[in-house]
Amino acid sequence: MWQEPRYQKETVRENPVEEVKKITFRPATDIYEMPDGFKLLLEMPSVDRETLKVYIKDNQLHIEGEKKKDVSDGKFLLQEIRDVAYERVFELGDDIDADSISARYEQGILEITLKKKEKEPVKEIKIQ
Amino acid sequence: MMYRPFPPFGSEFMKEFQQFREQLNELLKNVASGDVHLASDVMYPAVDVIEQDQQYVYVVELPGVKKEDVKLMVKDNSLVLEGERKEPEMGENVQKIRGEIAYGKFQRTLPLPENADLDKIRAEYKNGVLLVHIDKKEETKPRLIDVQVQ
User: How far are the Cα atoms of A4, A43, A73, B70, B111 from residue B64, in angstroms, in the given order?
Assistant: First the structure.
């Protein structure tokens, strides 16, 4: 659980819409396990909320988001902040309830909460 | 017989090598003077400095840092930023199973341009990014000012 698929790397990929090369970057992530679920914190500063995507597909949790520059014009005297697109994928375990997913974005941190599936009651089978 | 592993002096390579030497000397000088700390546990947030017609804008990435945990000052004609990123409290029965985000103190000292008007500094914090706007002016005076983060 929480394994990352092998193909996922920091890459330069072609963006067919804008025809510019965008560098994808895996945001640093903290994962907490609670008795009834999981909480993920992803470090994603200055993300444009409209580009922020969190979804589950084929039992994989996908997180995507693009940076929005607050200052667009002017001359850079110092440039350390990377202009990147965030992207990260995690494999989910079977015990996760995909419908329970919720997320909020605050202070540059994306917080994702997932609940564990409720255990089915043990069914006793009578042997005849 | 002379062994010459590098291209002759004056070449592009040697120029770069010379630049690297100068940068290294500069770094060592700063370490010796205490301006730069090597291998310490203090973090240095990434910064963009942008010059516009009327103002300078300092952009600092501080995701997960609370507004009240950021201190911004002007000291010796430099913008001094310090604070702490505190680990969120998750309560009992919670186990951290992956930790990639670095928590702790951060610090940055950034020189201010000579024509920066130290009376006209505005700071705002949103989406984990601190934006500091400093207007331009003709002359500068040395002083020490506390800047309130809004």
Answer: 24, 7, 27, 11, 25
Query: How many domains is chain A built from?
Result: 1
Whole-number pLDDT of residue B38: 57
Tell me the residue ranges of DSSP E strands in chain B.
Answer: 47-51, 55-61, 70-75, 78-85, 95-99, 104-111, 116-126, 129-136, 145-147
For residue B73, give its domain range.
40-87+101-150
Taking all residues of chain A, what is their mean pLDDT, rounded to a whole number? 85
Task: Inform me whether the pLDDT recorded for B106 exceeds 90.
Answer: yes
Interchain pair A78, B49: CB under 8 A: yes
User: How many separate domains does chain B show?
Assistant: 2
Least confident of A68-82, B35-49, B110-124: B35-49
Q: Which of A28, A78, A107 sits opposite B101 (nearest CB)?
A: A28
Q: Is A35 on the interface with B (CB under 8 A)?
A: yes
Say if residue B140's pLDDT is above 50.
no
* Contact at CB, A30 and B96, closer than 8 angstroms: yes
- Which pLDDT belongs to residue B39? 55
Domain of residue A101, CATH code: 2.60.40.790
Query: Is A86 within 8 Å of A22 (Cβ atoms)?
Result: no
